[in-house]
């Protein structure tokens, strides 16, 4: 969680941490180092993603690329209409398009698509095929 990169995120992140610590959960909460967040932001800015802040998705894909042998993305679609010509929400929790000045969804999509084409990650667009 980017608890210390933005002041509004610190209190909720710490509350979640303490709530988890008070239970007998096997889950562990990790906090991103703000310097790491800045470094990831600079990396993507140098590759054409010019936004006030990276989307959480692109940050987590960046993290996964450093930790995982294989990475598959789903849900990165910067357009308001999907391949099935149905409206697309850009958040899992609401039906609001991203603010143009905050995230650079089309630029993020292009970078992820280039990583897909180079074989660095797999990118799924549209519906996932049924599992066997």
UniProtKB/TrEMBL annotation:
Pathway: Protein modification; protein glycosylation. GO terms for molecular function: alpha-N-acetylneuraminate alpha-2,8-sialyltransferase activity. The keyword Glycoprotein applies. One of its GO terms (cellular component) is Golgi membrane. This is Alpha-N-acetylneuraminide alpha-28-sialyltransferase. Belongs to the glycosyltransferase 29 family. It is a single-pass type II membrane protein. Keywords: Glycoprotein, Glycosyltransferase, Golgi apparatus, Membrane, Signal-anchor, Transferase, Transmembrane, Transmembrane helix. One of its GO terms (biological process) is N-glycan processing. PANTHER family: ALPHA-2,8-SIALYLTRANSFERASE, ALPHA-N-ACETYLNEURAMINIDE ALPHA-2,8-SIALYLTRANSFERASE. It comes from Dissostichus eleginoides. It is found in: Golgi apparatus membrane. It holds the Pfam family Glyco_transf_29.
């Amino acid at each position: 969680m980017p608890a210390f990169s933005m002041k509004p995120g610190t209190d909720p992140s710490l509350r979640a941490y303490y709530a988890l610590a008070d239970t007998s959960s096997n889950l562990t909460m990790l906090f991103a180092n703000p310097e790491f967040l800045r470094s990831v932001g600079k990396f993507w800015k140098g590759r054409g993603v010019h936004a006030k802040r990276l989307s959480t998705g692109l940050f987590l894909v960046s993290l996964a690329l450093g930790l995982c042998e294989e990475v598959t993305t789903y849900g990165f679609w910067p357009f308001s209409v999907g391949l099935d010509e149905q409206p697309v929400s850009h958040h899992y929790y609401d039906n609001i398009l991203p603010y143009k000045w905050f995230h650079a969804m089309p630029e993020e999509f292009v970078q992820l698509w280039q990583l897909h084409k180079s074989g660095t990650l797999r990118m799924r667009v549209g519906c996932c095929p049924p599992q066997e």
